[in-house]
Amino acid sequence: MGFSLTGAHVIFFIAAVILAGMVSGVFIAITMNVTTSLQNRGDRVKDQLDTDFSVINDPDIIPMTGVYYLFYLKNIGGAKLITTNQTFQIFIDGELISSSLYYFENTSIPTEGVTTLYLNTTLASGDHTMHIIGPQAVDKDFLFMK
What we know:
Elements: H1 5-50, E1 53-55, E2 64-65, E3 68-75, E4 81-82, E5 89-92, E6 95-96, E7 102-104, E8 108-109, E9 114-119, E10 127-133, E11 139-145
Antiparallel strand pairs: 1-3, 2-3, 3-9, 4-8, 5-6, 5-10, 7-9, 10-11
């Protein structure tokens, strides 16, 4: 006996179902990969938007204690701010300040909290620019006079 037309249709139907299952599996894998990538990128953007700070000194009067200039750093972001020599870099008038020449009073600041930055450097009289780069590459400029 020969193979009937119905048998051929059943084989083609089964092959089509298997092929459709494979294609849908590929689409699901691609969709999950894109979803994970977008979620990770969204988390990074959220972290960056939650990270913000400001120097709140009077630019005309920078206090000193011993050899250290005192700068007050306020967390104006939506998350706790880690304040260490590894998370912040300081530039004065375009010159990188060695991490051994500054430190923070606290290792972290809650939202709306303030910490003191102790900076040991020699400054000539006149106008200066302090450029601070913090976590998530958030940076601020502060113009002041000595």
